[in-house]
Design brief:
With 372 residues, the chain is an alpha/beta fold. The protein has two domains: 9-263, Carbamate kinase (3-Layer(aba) Sandwich); 270-371, Archaeosine Trna-guanine Transglycosylase, Chain: A, domain 4, CATH 2.30.130.10. It has helices at residues 16-20, 28-43, 55-62, 72-96, 108-112, 114-129, 152-162, 199-205, 217-229, 244-248, 266-276, 287-295, 337-343, 351-355, and strands at 9-14, 47-52, 101-106, 133-138, 167-172, 193-194, 233-238, 258-260, 281-285, 305-309, 317-321, 327-332, 369-371. It has an eight-stranded mixed beta sheet with strand order 3-4-2-1-5-7-8-6, with helices on both faces. Strands 10-9-11-12-13 form a five-stranded mixed beta sheet, with helices on both faces. Strand 11 (317-321) and strand 12 (327-332) form a beta hairpin. Helix 2 packs across helix 4, helix 3 (55-62) packs across helix 4 (72-96) and helix 7 runs parallel beside helix 9 (217-229). It is globular, with a radius of gyration of 23 Å.
Length: 372
Amino acid sequence: MQQSASPQRLVIKVGTSVLTGGGATLDPRRLLMLVQQIAEMHERGIAAALVSSGAIAAGRGALGHPGLGRGIPAKQMLAAVGQPVLMHHYADLFGIFRLHTAQVLLTRGDLTHRQRYLNARDTLNALLQQRVVPIINENDTVATEEIKVGDNDNLSAMVANLIDADLLVLLTDQPGLFTTDPRSDPEARLINNVTEFDEALWHSAGGAGSKQGTGGMITKLQAAQLATRSGTAVVIAQGSRPGVLSELLGPQGRSVGTWFEPAMNQIESRKRWLLSERPQGTVHVDQGAARILREGGASLLPVGMTRVDGSFERGMIVRVLAPDGHEIARGITNYNATDLAALCGAHSTEIEERLGYIYAEEVIHRDDLVLV
């Protein structure tokens, strides 16, 4: 298989076992090796978000290996102690390469509640545009069974969807997904490429992984399925392999690890979703805006709006109607119905003056709009 065009936006998930080298606490050499590779990617113009485990291991090391058991309160306490320690390590190491970091703690509620989803997406996109490296983890100190994602593998897939990543890299302590468990079966073979999530594939993923992490290959397979459905390619690779990120993005990258092909590209995925969801309201536009939208590649600006129908919140899907009443597009609105009504005919420079704040200069960004 030929190597595709180099990705411009990545999500990298690194497991606890990679950061500790199999030990009980963080290994600074492993951290430096990872940071240096991400810094090299930034020099090539590739933006990267890092979903990092290791907070509990960092807390355990900071408190001198306390024997607290494996209960939820103990884990949450260790995560609370360890998260700032982990961030301090990352900030210092990325600082060597003149890169800034930002801590982003998420729960399932942040990714399923529409308003919070949009806020998280906007924050991450703003960080990446400013060449800041987001360090993302689940908010273990407050998460309960109802609101927790459960593991950073699936969290990384959700983040990949959130920022429209081209590639999700799952770094683990294994070279990839094998036909059987290579630790117990010497006949196990590395699966290099996956195009279908069939029963045999799930069987090959086996059960739980290392003692330090929270999941094994099953959660990585779940994450791969979730990400590929959204148009993101996925690879599982060995985090301890020297220069693994550069190797994965190189001309021979497809020979390393286990690659999962996206079910469709991101544009197709977004368009199918927009067309399948029920619109919550209607935005009417003038003839000029209708013509520009029909030509394709343009966002809807408030100056082109003439009327707003319905009651809807920011982040909802709305129809866009031309003056003759025909639907020309659907998209995700950056403002609620009340705000849009106040913005009809306004120039983008007037948004903050009229509303007192601004989310975006566009009513619907071209990336969130599909022509009907």
